[in-house]
Amino acid sequence: MSFEALRALVQGWAGAGLLPAGLTHGFLVNALLSGLVIGPVLGGLGTLVVTKRLAFFSEAVGHAALTGVAIGILVGEPYTGPYASLFGYCLLFALLVNYTRNRSNLTADTLIGVFLSVSLALGASLLLILASRVNIHILENVLFGSVLTVDDRDLTVLLAVATGVTALMLPLFNRLLLASFNPALARVRGVPVKGLDYLFIVLVTVVTVASVKIIGAILVGALLVIPAAAARVVASSLRGFFLLSVAFASVAAVAGILLPVQLALPVPSGGAIILAAGLLFLGALLARLFMKGDEG
Amino acid sequence: MTGRGIHGPAILFDRVDLTLGRTAILEGVSLHVAAGTVHAVVGPNGGGKSSLIRALLGQAPHRGIIRLDWPGDGPGTVAYVPQSVEFDRGLPLTVEDFLAVLCQRRPAFLGPDRRMGYGEALARVGMAGKERRRFGALSGGERQRVLLAQALIPAPDLIVLDEPMTALDEAGIAIFDSLLADLAAAGTTVLWVEHDLAQVRRLATRVTGLNKHVLFDGHPLEMLSPERVFDLFSSVPRRAATERIAS
Ligand SMILES: Nc1ncnc2c1ncn2[C@@H]1O[C@H](COP(=O)(O)OP(=O)(O)O)[C@@H](O)[C@H]1O
Ligand SMILES: [Mg+2]
To answer: Transmembrane stretches, by residue range (chain A) (predicted)?
Structure first.
C-alpha cells in the first residue's frame, strides 16, 4: 500500500470521527506514521544502549546531526532532507569515536566529550556562516523536530532504516548483550565482539539520523535513553525491560506528535515527545518508590 | 555423555611467549595437557595463568604453538568459566535471562528456550529453583555457580576454568567436586586455574606451576609438597625469606 492510500484511509477515519480530528491533516498522518515506527525501534534499541552504557554516545550522535545538516546545506543538498550529508557525517563521527576509543587510554565519556564539543563548534560555525542563506525556521526544525515537514521521502528513509535495524537487532540481540557482559566469554561462544561493536554503533547512528526530522537533533538521543531508563527502573526481567521500553517510547512518540496539535499548543514535536518520555520516567521512578515502600 | 570414552582434546603449548606492552607475561611456556584429564595450573597472582587461558582461547597475541588435538573429526565444544563478569548489577536480568543471553539464539527478552535445559544445569550447581532471581543480586558464590552452569550448556568437550572456587562455600565446593568428577568420568578435558592448592591436591590429575615460566609439572601429590609451594608463592629467595621470618 502506498503512503498516499494509507494517508487517505486514516484521513477518512479521522473525518468519520473514529480517530482524533487532527488526523484529517495529511501532514499529521505522516508524522504519526513516523512516530509509530520510531517509537518501537528506538525503545527496543534503547535497552541495548543503556545496558552497554552508550547513553552519552547516542546523545552525541544526535548532536552530530546538527553539523551534518549544516554541511548538507553548504554542499547544496535540499534544506528539508540533506540525507547524504546527515548519514555521511554522523557515521563518520560515530566510527571515529569508536575507533579512537579502542586505541586510546581515555574513558568513553571523556573521549565523547571531546568529539561532541568539536563537532558542535564546527556545526555552529557553519550554521552562522550560512545564516544569511537559510530561513531560521529550518534551523528550529532541525534542532527540535517538526511534524509539519515530514514528507514521503522522509517516511521512506525512516521505514527502510527501521526495517533494516530491526532485522539486524533482533537476531543479534543476545550476542550484542553478551559482548558487553564479558568479551572473552562472548568470543568463546562465537560472538565477533569487535565487529558487533561497530555494527551496533552504526545501527544507533542510522536510526538516530532517520529520526532527526521528527524529534530534532538536540533531543533525538533522548528517546534512545529515557524510555529504556524508565523501563529499567521498574522491570524485574529482561522481558519486562524490553517490552516496557518499547511501550514507553511508542507512547511518548505518539503523544508528543498528537497532543500539541489536539491542544493547539505551539510546541515542537521533539520537545513534546521527550517531555512525554520524561513524564513516563518520573512515573516509573514514583512507581518504584511505592513498590519499595510495599516491601518495607 | 558418559560412556562416550574420552571426547576432550589434548592440548599442546610449545614455547609460548606472551608479551603485553613491554612486559613479558609468559616466556617459553611448554606444557602438555592430556586428553580427558583434570589439569590444574597454579602460581602466584600475576603469574600469567589467566593470560595462558586467553592465549589458549585465541584472545591474546602470542608466539609459539598452541595446538588442540581433537579426538573426533573436528573441533568440539569449548566452555569457559571466567573469573568474573563485569556488568551493571542493577540490570533487570534474571538468572534464566542470563543463561538465555549466553546460550540461545532467540532474543532472550522473548523468554528462555525450554529445550536448552537451563533448569537442569542450574540444578547441577545447586541453584535449582533460583531461575527467577535477579542475577545482579546474587552473592559472589551464587554468581560463580551460575557461571559454572552456563559452561554445561551445551555439554562441553573442553572446559577452561579460571579460579572457579574463589567465592564458593562448603556446599559449593562439594558441588564443584562432583561436577569435576562427572566431567572427568565423561572424558572431558578440564584445564583448571586455581590458587587453592589443597583443592588441587585433592581433585587434579596433574598440576603445572606457572610464574612467567613453567616452574614444575607433574602429579599433584608429589609437586605440591610444602617446600615447593613456598618457592612458588615467594618472590624472594627461600633462604633469605626463612631467615627474615626467623629473625
Ligand atoms: N592488558 C594487559 N596489559 C599489560 N599487562 C597485563 C595485561 N593483562 C595482564 N597483564 C599483566 O600480566 C600479568 C599476568 O596477569 P594474569 O595472567 O592475569 O595473572 P594471573 O591470572 O596468574 O593472576 C600481570 O602482571 C598483569 O599485570
Ligand atoms: Mg587470573
So the answer is: 27-49, 56-75, 81-99, 111-136, 156-177, 198-226, 238-259, 271-291
What pLDDT, on a 0 to 100 scale, did the predictor assign at position B240? 41
| Closest CB to B86 among A47, A182, A237 | A182
B51 lines ligand 1 (CB under 6 A): yes
Domain membership of residue A231 (yes or no) is yes
Asked, for residue A296, whether it belongs to a domain, the answer is: no
- Tell me which chain A residues have a C-beta less than 8 angstroms from the C-beta of B86: 181-182
Look at residue A110 and tell me if it is in a domain: yes
Q: Residue A201 and residue A115: Cα distance in Å, rounded?
A: 15
In angstroms, the Cα distances linking A11 to A7, A8, A21, A250, B153 are 6, 5, 9, 21, 54
CB contact under 8 A, B110 and A174: no
Residue located via cell numbers 518495607: A296
What is the rounded distance in angstroms from the CA atom of residue A258 to the CA atom of residue A192? 42
pLDDT tens profile B217-247? 999 988 887 776 666 666 544 444 444 444 4
- How close, in Å, is residue A150 to chain B by CA atoms? 33
Is residue B66 pLDDT above 50, yes or no? yes
What is the number of domains present in chain A? 1
Task: Note whether residue A295 is domain-resident.
Answer: no
Q: Ligand 2 centroid vs B208 CA: distance in angstroms?
A: 15
Residue of B nearest to A193 (CA): B59
- ipTM of this predicted structure: 0.90
- Residue among A170, A178, A238 minimizing CB distance to B92: A238
pTM of the model: 0.91
Average pLDDT for A256-274? 91
Compute the average pLDDT of residues B87-102.
Answer: 93
* Cβ neighbours of A183 (radius 10 Å): 17
Residue A47 belongs to a domain with what CATH number? 1.10.3470.10
Q: Omega before B154 cis (within 30°)?
A: yes
- Rounded to the nearest angstrom, the minimum Cα separation between A233 and chain B is 8
pLDDT in tens, A2-30: 888 999 999 999 999 888 888 888 888 99
Which domain does A259 fall in, by range?
A: 3-290
pLDDT at A69 over 80: yes
